[in-house]
Amino acid sequence: MIKVEHELHQRRKGRNYGVLILLLAFAAMVLGLTVVKVQQLGDARQFESNDHVLRPALLPDETEGEGTQ
Amino acid sequence: MTDVSMQDTATREAGMGDYFALLKPRVMSLVVFTALVGLVTAPGHVHPFIAFVSILCIAVGGGASGALNMWWDADIDRIMKRTSNRPIPSGRVQPEEALAIGLALSGFSVILLGLATNFLAAALLAFTIFFYAVVYSMWLKRSTPQNIVIGGLSGALPPMIGWACVTGTVSIESVLMTALIFMWTPPHFWSLAIFVKSDYGRAGVPMLTETHGRRVTRNHIMGYMVALVPVSLAICFTQIGGPVYAVTAVVLNLWFLQACYKVWRRDEEQAEADNFAAEKRAFKVSLAYLFLHFAALMIDATLQSAGLWG
C-alpha cells in the first residue's frame, strides 16, 4: 500500500510548488516589463502604433504645414 | 509495487534542486557578475527593472547552455569522478529532460531579452549559448587541447551582452572586457589543471596537461599571462577605466605575473616537493585577479555617476 505522505509525494509536491512559483514569477515579470515599456513611451498613444488597424488619432494633423506652401 | 521498487523510484525522482544543478549555478554567478558590470559601466540609462530582467535573462541563458552541455557530455561525465554525481549520470534527471530544459530556457531567455532590451543583446546571448553548447561542448572539447581557450569565449561574452543591453552596440570597451576574461581563462584553468588529478584522459578529453605534458602547460600559462597584461591595461585608456581601475590593474597584473612566473620557472620535481604550492597560489590569485578587475570597473562607474571623476 502506498503511504500518502511518502517521500516521493513530498518531492513531487516540492517540484509542483517550484513550477507554480516559476510560472507566477514569469507572469509578474512580463507584467512588470509591460508596465515599464508603456511608461517609457511618453505619449501612451504610441502604444497603438503596434496595432495593424489604422488609428486616425495617430495621423499627422492635416492642418499642420498649411500656410508654409 | 514493492517497497524495493518504490524506494528505487523515490531516489531517482528529481527535485527542483536537481533541475537547478543542471544550470551550473557556480558558473552562473560569474556570468551574473560580469554581465552586471558590463551593464553598469555602459553609457546611458536603463530602467532598473529592465536591468534586472536583462541580468536574469543572461543568467538563465548561461544556465541553459550548461544544461545542454550536461546533456551532451553525460557519457563522459559518467566516467569522470568529479562529474559522476551530476544530475544526469547519477540518474536523478533523464537526458531528455535536460535537453528539453536547455532548449526551452534558451528560447525563453533570448526572446525575453530581445523584447526587454534590443535584438543585438538577444543575438549575442543566442551566440553565447550556441558557442558553449555546440562549438565548445560538441566540437572542441573532445577534439583539441586548445578547447578551453577557444571555448572560453562563451564565458567571456556576458559583459558584452550587458553593455549591449544599455547601448544597443558593441564598442571597444565591451570588446576589451570580453578579451580580458578570454585571455584570463587559460592561465586560470591550466593552473588548476596542473595540480588537480583529473581523469580527462580516461574519458577521452584532450587536456593540455595530458596531451603535451605539464612543461608545455607551464609555458602556455606564462605566454597567455604576458598577453593578458596589455588587454587589462588597455581598459585604462577607455572611458570606463578610472583611477581605481588603473591602480587595481597595475597591482593585479604585477601580482598575477609574479605568480605565473613562479609556475613557469618550476619543474615537476620542485612542484611535487611542495605539493604544487605555487600552482595552487596562481589559481587563487587568478580568481582574485578577475573579480577585482570587474569590481574596480564597478567602483569607477559608481564614482563617475556621482561626478567624482570623468
From TrEMBL, chain A:
Positions of transmembrane segments: 17-36
Protein name (Swiss-Prot/TrEMBL): Cytochrome C oxidase assembly protein
Keywords attached to this entry: Membrane, Transmembrane, Transmembrane helix
TrEMBL record, chain B:
EC number, as in UniProt: 2.5.1.141
This protein's record includes keyword Heme: no
Subcellular location: Cell membrane
Tree of life domain: Bacteria
Transmembrane portions of the chain: 21-43, 49-72, 119-139, 221-240, 246-264, 285-309
Catalytic activity reported: heme b + (2E,6E)-farnesyl diphosphate + H2O = Fe(II)-heme o + diphosphate
Keywords: Cell membrane, Heme biosynthesis, Membrane, Transferase, Transmembrane, Transmembrane helix
Topology with respect to the bilayer: Multi-pass membrane protein
Gene3D superfamilies according to UniProt: UbiA prenyltransferase
Entries under InterPro entries matching the protein: Protohaem_IX_farnesylTrfase, UbiA_prenyltransferase, UbiA_prenylTrfase_CS, UbiA_sf
Pathway membership, UniProt: Porphyrin-containing compound metabolism; heme O biosynthesis; heme O from protoheme: step 1/1
Additional notes on this entry: Carbon 2 of the heme B porphyrin ring is defined according to the Fischer nomenclature.
Protein function: Converts heme B (protoheme IX) to heme O by substitution of the vinyl group on carbon 2 of heme B porphyrin ring with a hydroxyethyl farnesyl side group.
HAMAP family: CyoE_CtaB
Subunit relationships: Interacts with CtaA.
Family per similarity comment: Belongs to the UbiA prenyltransferase family. Protoheme IX farnesyltransferase subfamily.
Name the UniProt record assigns to this protein: Protoheme IX farnesyltransferase
Organism for this UniProt entry: Marivivens donghaensis
